Every structure is written in C-alpha cells, then in structure tokens.
Sequence to fold (128 residues):
Amino acid sequence: MTSLFAQEIHLSKRHEEIVSQRLMLLQKMKNKFGEQNKEKASQIQAAEIAFKRNLSLLKDIDAAEKSLQTRIHLLPPPELVSLETLYWASVEECIPKWEQFLLGRAPYPIGVENQNEAENTIRNKAQQ
Fold:
C-alpha cells in the first residue's frame, strides 16, 4: 500500500510540475502574442506613415511636372519670334535658288566669285 501511496504522491507531484509548466508556457505564449500584436501595430503604423509620405511625394512630383510644363510652353519674347519669322522668310526665299543647285541642275547660286572666295577662306583657315 505504501508503494501505491508513494506512487500517487509521485504522480501528484509530477501533475503539479506539468500544470506549472503548462501555466508558464501559456504565460509565455500570451507574452509572445502581445509582442507580436505590438510589432504588427508598429508595422501597420509605419506602413501608413510611408503611404502618406509617398502620397505627398507624388503630389510634389506632379506639381513640379506641371510647373516645368508651364515653363516649357511659355511664349518666347516677341523679339525672338520676330527674328525667327525673318529667318524662315529668308530661308524660304533662298530655297528656289539652292534647290536647283543641290539637285545638280544649276550652278552655284551666289556666283562663281563668291564661291571661290569661300573656298579660299576655308583653305586659308585650314592652313593656319
């Protein structure tokens, strides 16, 4: 009988150890779960902050792009427009003279003297 009693005492102590370990493990799980929840909340908060920052950066980029597009499409000063108009008018005036020359159907349009002067100038510059 004493052996059964001793065995029951041993089993009772073992049961208490197991229950104690179970409570300790449950507490550790609870702590770990709490830490994970805090970490998850921190990550969610960081993601929200990053989202807001990225949204702000996108708005800044859009504003900068619109600003640059506005600068690109600004009209040039009237003096420049006038010079550009005069330039293209002179080009259009000279096209018929040069067209035949470039197609090989006519001589140099400005004159032989000017062509020789131009060639001499180029040669002189090349020699220097």
Q: What stands out?
A: The mean pLDDT is 85. The two ends are 128 Å apart (CA to CA). The chain has three helices and no strands.
